[in-house]
Amino acid sequence: MTEFNLPSVWIQELTWQEVDSYLQREDRIVIVPVGSTEQHGPAGPCGLDAYVAIALAEDVARRKGVLCTPPLWFGDSPHHTAFPGTLSLRTETLMLVIRDIARNLARHRFNRIVLINGHKGSNLPALTTAVRNLHEEELPGVLFAVADPLHLARSAAGRIKERPEHHAGELEISQMLYKYPELIRKDRLTEEWVDFENVFGGFVGGDLFGPAPEGVDIIWSSREQRTFTPSGSFSPSARMSAEKGKAYHEHMVERLSEFIDWLRGYKGPIGGAA
Amino acid sequence: MTEFNLPSVWIQELTWQEVDSYLQREDRIVIVPVGSTEQHGPAGPCGLDAYVAIALAEDVARRKGVLCTPPLWFGDSPHHTAFPGTLSLRTETLMLVIRDIARNLARHRFNRIVLINGHKGSNLPALTTAVRNLHEEELPGVLFAVADPLHLARSAAGRIKERPEHHAGELEISQMLYKYPELIRKDRLTEEWVDFENVFGGFVGGDLFGPAPEGVDIIWSSREQRTFTPSGSFSPSARMSAEKGKAYHEHMVERLSEFIDWLRGYKGPIGGAA
Amino acid sequence: MTEFNLPSVWIQELTWQEVDSYLQREDRIVIVPVGSTEQHGPAGPCGLDAYVAIALAEDVARRKGVLCTPPLWFGDSPHHTAFPGTLSLRTETLMLVIRDIARNLARHRFNRIVLINGHKGSNLPALTTAVRNLHEEELPGVLFAVADPLHLARSAAGRIKERPEHHAGELEISQMLYKYPELIRKDRLTEEWVDFENVFGGFVGGDLFGPAPEGVDIIWSSREQRTFTPSGSFSPSARMSAEKGKAYHEHMVERLSEFIDWLRGYKGPIGGAA
Amino acid sequence: MTEFNLPSVWIQELTWQEVDSYLQREDRIVIVPVGSTEQHGPAGPCGLDAYVAIALAEDVARRKGVLCTPPLWFGDSPHHTAFPGTLSLRTETLMLVIRDIARNLARHRFNRIVLINGHKGSNLPALTTAVRNLHEEELPGVLFAVADPLHLARSAAGRIKERPEHHAGELEISQMLYKYPELIRKDRLTEEWVDFENVFGGFVGGDLFGPAPEGVDIIWSSREQRTFTPSGSFSPSARMSAEKGKAYHEHMVERLSEFIDWLRGYKGPIGGAA
Amino acid sequence: MTEFNLPSVWIQELTWQEVDSYLQREDRIVIVPVGSTEQHGPAGPCGLDAYVAIALAEDVARRKGVLCTPPLWFGDSPHHTAFPGTLSLRTETLMLVIRDIARNLARHRFNRIVLINGHKGSNLPALTTAVRNLHEEELPGVLFAVADPLHLARSAAGRIKERPEHHAGELEISQMLYKYPELIRKDRLTEEWVDFENVFGGFVGGDLFGPAPEGVDIIWSSREQRTFTPSGSFSPSARMSAEKGKAYHEHMVERLSEFIDWLRGYKGPIGGAA
Amino acid sequence: MTEFNLPSVWIQELTWQEVDSYLQREDRIVIVPVGSTEQHGPAGPCGLDAYVAIALAEDVARRKGVLCTPPLWFGDSPHHTAFPGTLSLRTETLMLVIRDIARNLARHRFNRIVLINGHKGSNLPALTTAVRNLHEEELPGVLFAVADPLHLARSAAGRIKERPEHHAGELEISQMLYKYPELIRKDRLTEEWVDFENVFGGFVGGDLFGPAPEGVDIIWSSREQRTFTPSGSFSPSARMSAEKGKAYHEHMVERLSEFIDWLRGYKGPIGGAA
Fold it and tell me: Across the beta sheet with B67-68, what order do the strands follow?
């Protein structure tokens, strides 16, 4: 592995010449953390998803010696916008932001761009289509990847958590507690959850890491959300713990590290255009 | 159930006054079939995904007495565009098409709009974000749903198929054979498949209905696709049969019918705005 | 003439390898049928314009051995959107759809793209500007053409019809009767028409195939349309007949066939860029 | 008729309070002249189409006492852009410009907006779709009309001119000579013309005011145009005369004046929304 | 200096071959005058800013022998749109118009494009970002410059005027009086002005050419503007004079002429890409 | 003054209910820090402009008890994109991001939105036009303001610095040293500067806080920038000091605090719509 001896993994903390020195290596990997600012129930901070992306990005970057761009604090969360503090980009705006950032990175010769999404699922349509189209049309020589807790912890989550996890639940609250304990309001933890069976008739699953029904995706708005979960809690957070947070977080950092290793050795067809 | 006595379930075959008569009922459901025109390996027709959407839409519409719009033959398939016959809309274009159609339907007082996507997965970012944003910003009084074989047959698929199913595989080829047998080139069935482990290092699953790895989404282009599957076959199609096709198709029609029934009785908060 | 021995003229019914085999010839012509889903008075189906495009495309394609893309069922019809069943794309959306499809076709090396518009006139602004700009800016090596009943039957129409023809009139209803007789409600034929002189003061002509006034184009909305033609009939349909439909349709197929022949032999400057 | 006693018909020459005083009347008509800056052969100025729009607008406005906006000098002319001096807006840009101007006019309570297009035909897709969509979606209370020499002089043109007229021909050169004689280079008049039969095989007519073929629209680019008419002359201009120009121009002013009169008395459904 | 012997400096008054002859020189400079149509108080015409741009462009072009495009009469003035006669383009529309015109000019090999903005300040965001992005992304071989009275007369203005100048004030009214005396309503001159201290608390300066406060930009709408200046006058115009107008105008023409001279001799890095 | 007793001024660190409690007051002020990620010469970090915005926002927010949104790390910097580490949004993208965030804030009833721009000048076109259009068209009840060091320190800067300040100069490097000393590479401070007179002929000023020439704005690209300042330093940074940084920073915090005070007491017409 190429040695990494810059004073920070964050581009915003480096001079351009330091970034330039990193680009002399062959494996020019960069991580882009993408978050969201949105309600996370009575106990979680509005920036939770961004903190998830930042923490994952920073920990894997330090462990593997790769650079990160500054985080994007804003994601695609229209269904939360009836709750104050939610600041959502429109899907098209988010696509443009990702495209602009990726074009700059590619111009500087980064050739492996890994988006880390902290906003489980909901940012993925914008992120994956933005980079898919860019890779097809403009940047064949860049390998793009999109990482998300939903996939990184697909099976591990079930071993760690006790309750269904959808939004503002046990796992992500625990992860915050582990990494940023001052951001959790421990006196506001809750057993409140959304009865998906009742609201969505068994067609939409209430545990993003659990077995899903043979379903149909039913779209809800933020106003409707306030009627079926006035507190914004979709999943019980009361059983959170720093230990669970650590297990969940470190599992993902480990899996991401394996991915970075694979990227470094990868010689296949993806992203290999001249 | 309200009686349905129009000469067709397809709006394109009805006069506007016939459509208007349907809108006198309380449950003003409409189905929008969305397909794709893209390569489906040596044995499958380019329009396969659209035929899937059309067949599902028509069968459930006839069974439950609801209307369908004409199909959209074009979807979001940039990763197949290096294969002749693939006609892909850009993600943003598809979003606009869905939005325009939905706005017209809502203006005519349809209040439950069910998109049926025949293009497993790949159209979903455009479809779900288009209707999610529309529901949030403009059409709170419409309930939107998006149905997709990936979810409708989530567990059933595993009981029916023998091999991994990604694209142009046993299940969708069987479904075609069952519904449109003349569209399958039986002499071109194949055992060819993509070795996902080899190409994507175990981070991307090769069976959309099977257990998925703890993964990272790796983006590939159509040019790259032609290098790792020159025939366009991702999954073996040789073991297809009309019986499998029937089991797969009828399972989904049944599940969609249950959904229509649920929609008819639904009194919850979604889509209930004045 | 190059022999055509594929099982269908429709790309959606062919495998990509069959489409590829067609592209080995020198004259790589493709037809794109563009319709509309909109009210066509008490007797005509909402999909009439799309059926016109499909029937013209299929008949000329079979006669001359060229390929067709799947049809676009949706066109640019804002002035009909107050009538249920009308599903109109915004002008900009239609331009984008045409552009996306044309770019894909050009990428696959089709070099003569013929749009057949079934929606007399109203789609033309979007269609002609979309391909004009594409040809100027991106695809100089493709010859684009746009065919429309208004021009194909410019003089013949007058010999066939007895009454003024604007929308939902004798000619297009006859054409449906000839090609898709089950789609016409014969008990709903009508003598109703719009008195253009009265509504538009002699500045807008009421017969699209007749002599036009020295005029000014006056724009009307769908709501206004419902006031001046509550049934949606602009032109009398009562004198329709399958014979008139045959004469009208076959005239256009013949003229389109002459055009395909001319295209095959064409060696001039248009679309000849390297 | 309401008296008009402002010092100019041009909004750009009036104070806002003068414009405001005009808006106290019931018939709040405004004319928007839309031109083009593009090659007009060896004898005609690049601004010819804009001068046509300006002259028509000013003469009818003075005769009937209505206001005009400043002219738009730029139109939609991609097919001329290989000739220096051509300054073409993209179709979408022109649509946005028209929309912005119309929205401002409507906000100020103008309720009849007449676009006068000097660029025969080629601007019409952008102009008519822009105002059609605006009238349908946002401004039901405004009557929009689009006037164009092609329609205003549809039959009169044939009585005045001796030769086919397509672009830079006898009629529009004569009109310039009549209104702006210093803009015509009399020593560069030409008999050059484009042999449409030869270039377009009889599917595209070479006389915009003459009988048209049963045709198909064939799209050409500006580069191709330079090959089939290196001088930019589509139609012979040598027989131009100020008398022909006067007859042509005054005929159109007269027809436009009749239209303004009709607008003033109009009580029908168009543009009558509250 | 290359000799200039064309009959006009305005492209709209020249044939394309005359424009072409100009392009044979090495310094292919072109001026684009950009104005605005907006209220200018009780004494000034709505087109004032466009007349400023036209007069500056024409005078410098004649003096230095360079070409001008036709003027754009419309600018970015949302904050004036509550006053009749204001016709504002949206910022994005103006950016597109500038981009389209610049692309055409560059295609014709103009290599120095000077925008002259008559609308002090308010058009600058659209103009500068449009050409900055174009120069960065598409047209590295063109040198773009943007001239504005605010900068051209930065220090001279203070020597000429007696009163604060913001909008519709002494300087621009004087300039009109000097160049287009018939456009000023001398009986409507006014001492009215906006008390910026009172409205904006000392954070926004009321003299665009005077010392500015340590400030914060406070955004106001056109409706708000009508409350704090019902007449539209921001600055006193009563002390205007043709002499002041001449001093102000000729100072700017002189400075622009120096700039053209510098451009002609310039050999530096800007706009020098192959 | 209303008491502020939330645990943080940053929305990302608060729960939605804490944000909601803040919105019970009458003066619902929020600060949006907007930065940039771009080269800042050999001694400054790429994120310098974002750190400026963050530090100003946080310090004034804490002093006056108002909330801040998370920062936007990306700005409009095309002219720096040839230097690695620069991550620039396109102007239109930045406008959309600001618009989306502002719409969310307004929906939550924030009624005074103060953008603090750390990227001196270059972000302003996007920021001011975005909020100006939003205030005019959609959000008349919100008062928008845009603060920028260029204006906040307009005269004070001259008293503090010794050398011309354009980009990466003495003042902003000093400000970093004062607030984030670890981000400055003290061994890379430089006396390098851009000779504006030589590059831009005296038409563009090299000191953003100094007297400006009677000028013309000349646009340069990032590639050109690398030729005239290979290190990216526009202004000497060698004389920086924490004392200068403190004086500069605290002056701006003080001025912003005065602005917040004024906003709280403001009863004028701006942002007062129902």
Answer: A217-218, B143-147, B112-117, B29-34, B67-68
ipTM surpasses 0.85: yes
Nearest-angstrom CA–CA distance, F146 and B130: 32
Nearest CB among C18, C19, C43 relative to B15 is that of C43
CA dist., res. B128 & res. B105, Å (int): 17
Six token digits for residue D219: 């799209």
- Residue C57 vs residues C69, C114, C151, D216: alpha-carbon distances, Å: 9, 9, 16, 14
User: Cα–Cα distance between B230 and B234 in angstroms, integer?
Assistant: 10
Q: Which residue has the tokens 């990428």?
A: C107
In order of B19, E135, F58, the CA distances from E105 in angstroms are 53, 13, 47
Q: pLDDT digits over E30-45, tens only?
A: 999 999 999 999 999 9
Please work out, in degrees rounded to the nearest 5, the angle formed at the alpha carbon of residue F266 by the alpha carbons of F265 and F269.
160
Residue-level pLDDT at A3: 84
Q: Could you identify the residue written with the tokens 């730029």?
A: D74
pLDDT computed for residue F273 by the predictor: 75
Section E40-51 average pLDDT = 98
pLDDT > 80? residue D1? no
Angle at the Cα of E117 (from D10 to F200), degrees rounded to 5?
A: 165
CA F67 to chain centre: 17
Of B100, B24, B57, whose CA–CA distance to B257 is shortest?
B57
Question: Does D41 lie at the interface with E, CB-CB under 8 angstroms?
Answer: yes
D146 reaches C (C-beta below 8 A): yes
Amino acid at B137: E
Contact between E239 and E188 under an 8 Å Cβ cutoff? The reply is: no
Number of neighbours of residue B20 by Cβ within 10 angstroms: 16
Q: State the Cα–Cα distance between residues C142 and B221, nearest whole angstrom.
A: 25
User: Is A12 in Cβ contact with F45 (below 8 Å)?
Assistant: yes
Q: Which residues of A touch B145 (CB under 8 A)?
A: 203, 216-219
Q: Number of residue pairs across D and E with CB atoms under 8 Å?
A: 179
**Which residues, at least 6 apart from A254, have a Cβ–Cβ distance to it below 8 Å?**
none
What are the pLDDT tens digits along chain F (274 aa)?
568 999 999 999 999 999 999 999 999 999 999 999 999 999 999 999 999 999 999 999 999 999 999 999 999 999 999 999 999 999 999 999 999 999 999 999 999 999 999 999 999 999 999 999 999 999 999 999 999 999 999 999 999 999 999 999 999 999 999 999 999 999 999 999 999 999 999 999 999 999 899 999 999 999 999 999 999 999 999 999 999 999 999 999 999 999 999 999 999 899 987 5
How many Å apart are CA D70 and CA B96, to the nearest integer? Answer: 34
F250-265 in b/e form (b: 16+ CB < 10 A) is ebbbbbbebbbebbbe
Q: Output the six-digit token pair for E34.
A: 């950009």
Contact E16 D232 (CB under 8 A): yes
pLDDT tens by residue, C36-72: 999 999 999 999 999 999 999 999 999 999 999 999 9
Please tell me the number of Cα atoms within 13 Å of E10 on its side-chain side.
19
What 3-state DSSP class applies to B92? helix
Q: Which of C155, C220, C269 sits opposite D224 (nearest CB)?
A: C269
Count CB-CB contacts under 10 A for residue D76. Answer: 27
Closest to D45 (Cα-Cα) out of D73, D76, D70, D69: D73
